[in-house]
Amino acid sequence: MESGAQETAATTCAQCGAAADSGRIFCANCGIPLRAPTALIAPTGPAPTKRKWISVKWTLVATVLLLGYFAWQCGSGISAGARLSDDAVRHFHALLDSEKYGQIVDESDEAFQNSGSRDETLKFLSGVHSKLGASRGFTRTNIVVNATTRGTFIRVSYKSTFDQGDAAETFTWTKTGDRLKLFNYQVNSNVFVTR
């Protein structure tokens, strides 16, 4: 028991030399710390920050919403392009059936008008009509909408039925406001070979 009493009295202040109990943190005489403070709760490692997780979650939500918006815009752009193209093809076939080839050229894009001489283009359209006959209907098979710095281009493929047989038609349109102008026209049919 005496050795325990010596232990408690053995601590002295390094500043003033006053005796202090070993359980004391500060010197009773001068107030200087007698020992380094110890943590009341031992650290277990860095705690995950709640703020970081909230930030990650909102970033993911914003990304999903942004991607959803772009997908919706692309879908509505293709849908609008398909509707406009179907209307333009009906108009094209009506002009072709009524042999108004000059009006087809006049209503087309400048690039189509300048792709060859006007006479050659009129002969080509006349030849298509004379070989295939009147239009009986069409089914859209493919559509590609391409927005560029030069404008929006809509390329649409159709399986078309005419009096003399079927044909595969590909129309490339330029979009000007709510109207489409013919930029390129391609047509393939076995009727061209057999008739």
Order of helices and strands: HEEHHHHEEEEH
Radius of gyration: 43 Å
Strand content: 25-35%
Shape: rod-shaped
End-to-end Cα distance: 126 Å
Give me the side-by-side strand order of the main sheet: 3-4-5-6
- Residue windows where pLDDT falls under 50 for at least 5 positions: 1-9
Average pLDDT: 83
What is the share of helical residues?
40-55%
Number of domains: 1
CATH architecture: Roll
Number of helices: 6
Quick one: how many beta strands? 6
Tell me the structural class.
alpha+beta
Largest sheet: 4 strands, antiparallel
CATH-defined fold name: Nuclear Transport Factor 2, Chain: A
Which CATH top level class fits?
Alpha Beta
Outline the structure in words.
With about 200 residues, the chain is α+β, with helices and mostly antiparallel strands. It has a single domain, classed as Roll (Nuclear Transport Factor 2, Chain: A), CATH 3.10.450.590. The protein is about 45% helix and about 25% strand. The strands form 2 sheets. A 4-stranded antiparallel β-sheet has the order 3-4-5-6. The protein has a two-stranded antiparallel ribbon with strand order 1-2. The N and C termini lie far apart (about 125 Å). Residues about 1-10 have low confidence and may be disordered.
Short description:
The protein has 6 helices and 6 strands, in the order αββααααββββα.
